[in-house]
Amino acid sequence: MKALFFNDFGDASVLQYGEVADPIVTANTVLVKTTYIGLNFADIYRRRGTYHLEKHQPYIDGYEGVGTVVAVGKQVANFKRGDRVLFVDVPFANASLVAVPADQAIKVPRAINDQQVASIGLQGMTAEFLVHDLAQNQPHDRVLIHGISGGVGQLLTQLLVANEVAVYGVASTLNWPIKLAQPPFLCAMILGTRPIIIFLIRYLMGSVRHYQLVWRLPSTVGGSFFMAWQLAIHQ
Asked: How many C-beta atoms lie closer than 10 Å to residue 16's C-beta?
């Protein structure tokens, strides 16, 4: 199979693209032929050698993707060849074939294309965890999201707005160096937020008392793990 791999830790120059051995399909796994693969900040840390990376020779990064099942383990009953699946927190995803534990594969509805699915794996599950498991805000609560224009921030905004929570946000700058259809802060406002604060740390820290919850979402959370921390809760 083809894979993006590396033998030594370092910057992007260590990456190579070429042939490596196919993964082994065990009794409880499915073999997925990937169409899109998620890229997260944690993957960069792994490539640099500063974050946990599953052992493999050579190293293969990546922990989420979407594709089609092409082989099924003997003890797998709920998947068949041809099923479209999303997988999350599964190592060695930067490859054309990935052996995915059946209990970590999620069937994809026909109405959602592969590109859309690949963009909401870890980030979407992180946002869902924050909203429905950790924060559990009530309608009309006021929530301030620091880092609202990133992937988790935008998904978090949509979930909170759907729950009738008043969402405010902090974006880093008005001048965005990447050409987008809309600047990030404007994207967040379109999603239903109240005023966006352009980052001024003294203003921000002096304003947290006005909110029931303040989330700080650094870039590492915007594309990696189920992790975030609460800066302040003010009832």
From this structure: 12
